[in-house]
Design brief:
The chain is an all-alpha fold. Helix content is 69%, strand content 0%.
């Protein structure tokens, strides 16, 4: 069990990241709701997962190679990029082409920056260290292989939870739209059997 808990921790943190709106389910759900296609939300998960995995893989590689990271500097730099992107999007002089909804590359980049800003990979360090130390006999290659395997487990757990939440949000919006349409858009239809007012005659 002692050798299993780091893997459980890696998967558990991935599931928690999947629940976090900043990790991507909110963007994936927005894609699906805008396109009125739940499949579009699920397709958006691929670039989101790639960006998240890249951010986590950088930290995992640093741990495997024994490189120290300045957590504060990394998070402040990523946070500054997020603020800069938001300001450019809101600035009226920014070209319209730069303010269009993000494509797959934009989703991947946004996921990478956001995961780095809130320290997604840094949260895995307590679980990565015993894994890499356990593979010390295999040298750096063995440690790197275990670190990348941990990234894969983490990303799979995050992707599964993110997909479930995004699909649920899209289904909820679709149900709410049908319910709203069935209610006449908020206008109550006349009750059955109720008399409609007679149209005014031409003589009056």
């Amino acid at each position: 069990m002692a050798s299993l808990w780091p893997w459980l921790a890696v998967a558990g943190i991935g599931a928690l990241h999947g629940l976090h709106p900043a990790s991507g389910w909110m963007l994936a759900a927005a894609w699906g709701v805008r396109a009125r296609d739940r499949g579009q939300a699920l397709r958006a998960l691929v670039p989101i997962a790639l960006g998240h995995a890249a951010s986590v893989a950088l930290v995992a590689a640093a741990v495997a190679f024994g490189v120290s990271l300045d957590r504060t500097m990394v998070q402040w730099f990523a946070g500054a990029l997020c603020v800069l992107a938001a300001l450019l999007h809101l600035w009226r002089r920014t070209p319209t082409a730069a303010r269009v909804p993000a494509g797959h590359a934009g989703l991947a980049l946004g996921s990478f920056v956001m995961a780095t800003a809130h320290g997604a990979g840094l949260m895995l360090v307590p679980a990565l260290v015993p894994l890499c130390m356990g593979a010390a006999g295999g040298g750096t290659v063995g440690s790197l292989g275990l670190a990348l395997a941990a990234v894969a487990v983490h990303t799979a757990a995050m992707l599964a939870v993110t997909g479930l939440v995004a699909a649920g949000v899209c289904r909820g919006f679709a149900f709410g739209s049908r319910w709203w349409a069935g209610c006449g858009g908020g206008i109550n239809p006349p009750a059955a059997g109720a008399r409609r007012p007679a149209a005014p005659s031409a003589e009056s």
